[in-house]
Amino acid sequence: MIKTLIFIFIFMMPFTMAHSVVLKVNAEYSQSRDNPGKNEFRITDPCIKLPLSYFCDDNVSRVVAVDADIDKPIFRGSNAWDRFFFHSFPREKSVTLTSPTGSKVNMKFSFTHTGYTLKNVGVDIGDAYQAHPNSNCSLVDRDTASSTKTVFYSIAANAQKNGGSCYTKIYPNPIKRINAIISKYYFGYKLSADNIDTIPNGRYQGRVTLTVGSSNKDLDLGNSAYRAPSIIEMDISLVVRNQMKVEFPHGSNTVVLTPPKGWWNSTLPTVLNSTLPVRISSDTPFWIGLMCQYTHVGGGQCEIRDRSGSHRVPIVISRNNAYGKFILSPSVKVPFKNSKESANDFFLFEIEQSKVDEMRKRPGATYKGIVTLIVDATIPVGGM
Questions:
Q1: Which residue, 21, 58, 111, 182, shows the most beta carbons closer than 10 Å to its own?
Q2: Cβ-proximal residues to 230 (8 Å cutoff; 6+ apart), any chain
């Protein structure tokens, strides 16, 4: 199963130019806010609006905005990179994110949008901002009324995976050659991951390095002078909070304690007990505890009471599986490293012999109590 998230994240840096720029990207994969029981990607970075309408439109879209100092000649040349806008972009990239414990998640990075702001365009470009029909993009929004012009394009879905180029129509009329400046460029991107719902919870970190310049760089905006930046480092931090799954048999909200051999056996019962099958599936640590309607003296056990409340009987509750018997308590969280679904996993409810002997002295009495089993995931706290 492939989960996909489109990131279009915003970064604003001062105009002091740098050859290398570092962008921080923060996201999480956790329980959906709108669809309980399902997980989803979410961007946790704030959404900051930029001048064009598309730059910030929902919770899963952002745009990277990077200050730049790149020459852009404006003239009616014969090559695609001579057009008003040109961006040759690569096929999707692979990136591996790693947790402090060594777990890994493999992701794919690809461009989804592209654009820039161009200063000192002192000529009439006509409709040369429109994407060429043969290019791998379409115009999303523009602001081309003044000498500073901003354009933004959506990259076609097949080109996002395989790479391609976005370029505009030829200038409608011959233009006297001038040199404009790309002062800022924008790009949207997508991250996708395989089987992210199977990896352990935790924080995963990795880096995508994007090169800037001509000759088949990641951000190849034409055959011009690139003063800054030359490298963009995208530090990705992904918090995974996979849900655990706990399943009980249908109608198992009532547990009736009986002698192991039944009430009609000729021997007196020495214990009363009952089992509750359970399937717990979790690739990450979790704990189990109890919450009692009636807590026995000392707080270490739940209890049941007769109707008058005068006789109180503690219950020993445990989880039993192939690894042993684990006594549960309302005062202690019992930890488990992980759990795989197993038909031999069950909760055992027991009343010990000495307490059964006391109960036999009250024939016809009915004992009741409510016990809540709490199974909760343990999220690693380091860096979370």
A1: 111
A2: 19, 20, 211, 212, 213
Write out the E strands in 177-311. Answer: 178-194, 202-211, 226-228, 231-240, 245-247, 272-277, 279-281, 286-292, 302-306
Domain that holds residue 113: 2-240
Longest pairwise C-alpha distance within the chain? 110
How many domains are contained in the chain? 2
- Taking the C-alpha atoms of residue 232 and residue 23, their distance in angstroms, rounded to an integer, is 7
Total residues belonging to the chain: 384
Of 209, 240, 271, the residue at which a domain comes to its end is 240
299 near 332, Cβ under 8 Å? no
Which tens digit of pLDDT belongs to each residue from 214-255? 888 999 998 889 998 999 999 999 988 776 778 888 878 889
Please choose, from the candidates 96, 121, 241, 247, the residue with its C-alpha nearest in 3D space to the C-alpha of residue 176: 121
For 185-284, where are the alpha helices, taking DSSP H only? none
pTM reported for the whole predicted model: 0.64
Strands 231-240 and 20-31: parallel
- What would the DSSP string read from start to end of 157-175? HHHHHH-EEEEBPPPSS--
| CB atoms closer than 10 angstroms to residue 214 | 16
Domain boundary among 213, 240, 267: 240
Token digits of residue 237: 């931090």
Spatial contact of 127 and 119, defined as CB atoms under 8 Å apart = no
3-state secondary structure of 34: coil
Burial class of residue 371, CB neighbours in 10 A (0-12, 13-18, 19+): buried
Residue 214 and residue 305 share a domain: no
Percent of the chain with pLDDT over 70: 85
Bridge partners of 54? none
